Amino acid sequence: MRQSSPGLRGVAVSVLGGLDAVLGFLAAGLLAALLMVVLAGVVLRYAFSTGFIGAEDLGIWLHVAMIAVGAPLSLKSALAMRLDVFVRLLPSRPKRAAEIFADAFSFVAAFILLFGGVEIAAMLGGVSPTLGLPEWVRFSFLGIGGGLILVYLFLQRLVEGRGVAALLSLLLAAGTYFGLPEVFIDNTLPASFFLGLVAALGLLLAAPLAHAFLAAAYVAIAFGSTLPEPAIVSSTVTGMSKFLLLAIPFFLLVGALLTESGVANRLVRFAAAMVGHRRAGLAQTTLLTSVLLSGASGSSVANAAFGAATFQPELVRHGYPPPQAGAIIAATSVLDNIIPPSIAFLILAAATNLSVGSLLVGGFFAGAVMALCLAVAIHLTVGDVKTHPRAKAPERRKAAISAIPAFGLGVIVVVGIRIGIVTTTEAAALAALYTLVLGLYGRIGAERTLGAFRQSAVEAAAIGLLIGAAGPFAFLLAVDDVSGIVSNFVMLLGGSALAVLLLSNLILFVAGLVLDIGAAILLFGPILLPAAVAAGIDPIHFGVILVVNLMIHGLTPPVGMLIFVVSGVTRVSATALFRAVVPYLVSLLVALVILSGLAVAVSR
Asked: Where do the domains of the chain lie?
């Protein structure tokens, strides 16, 4: 059956291309404006001993607007967070049906944002005391974003020749959205049970995780949920309206600019000069480069893509089997969300109010333990392959001097935050400015700079929407005291530090198999942390263990985000990578055991 006429498809291609360009430019512009607002606050405070009234609120409003504009663009990126491993195994007809239902989840989420945003904007009164703007404006941004998702997704399906399927998805979503308010299903089960059930269904159908969360919260209304549609949107906006979260797009921008400017390649040359001559020297260089880049980008996905493009060809050329080369790259990329700056720690701090500075210090130690375990695993598993000749002292000195500008990022971020000179968001903004200057000095050009801003804004929008969508989800779990149920389960073995850590790691291990790390942190961080504190475990130690546990799942099926990123860049099958990564996965689990054991020892 023909899905759409050639003429209609041609129009869709033209319109989608224009919309993509406009939204990309707007997202990049909003990120640039956000960066200028935060930097202006820093300059005014330290240069003129004054402040920019409303700077924090303006930054938050711009961040929400950037998420709304960038959310449609993130639909086709890896950060859409689709668990498509099950759908890919289906025969063609069931697979097409699953795709229709997955898009229905996205359309329902878009309806919620659009109409819920309009409704809450109409209900809200008052004016922002610092900005002098009506409060409804901030909440209307997601309404606009919902409308953009509707249009963008439908056009995307037309371009792919799936117009009829898109129409079926839209009709199914409209029937669900407009029909559910007329339905009330009396039952004895809590609304959170159906919330989890619908979210799990969306996850299995490969719907974007944030969309599955929003749709599940809406469907739960028919089962007695206390959160009406306007409250779902309000909770979503509130969840992403935290000044700390502005650091995420800035750290993503740092990583993008490092790659574009060539500064990342200086780190590669420095790492090669240090360890390239050793056994498995190129693999150890890959590991050391990940450690060094961890202090810059804070994004494992970004580092996995960079490593796959940079190291895979060289590793294969030096005799490494392609699956093993890709597995090493994926495994070492785990460190980026452990060694500061870490986006995962920022999300955890936002969800639990733990100290960012203390988490970053804990991340340094955890990253060192994990890197050591990976180095041992690489040494033991790599056979007879070519190594680089030992670099001479002048070559090492030259490589070190060349890499000094990149090392400056660590000073700005970690030292600035730890001694309290700047906030986490301000440190991230200064790091972005520093990297931008390095890029301009390296003459990367306006087009590539704009591309870095666009890419970072879109990735940040995907993460921001997920954080926001987890808000109503977490609220409904709290209403039904799911945290109490989990805490009671964690205390089953007596509530000792060892028992709590053992069961917490087990819960996180299971959750990490099917949930994105950001979603798992947002849902399980606030639930498990009180039980850990009650057992005498230091909350910072537990937070670090939680992030380490969940980051390891970047290598485990079925989600295995880092494996799929490396597979996409290198064209090595994900199945082969999952097999090849086993020794490195085991080494990271050993690191988790060591960290857990130390946390138990300290708690006594």
From this structure: 6-241, 245-603
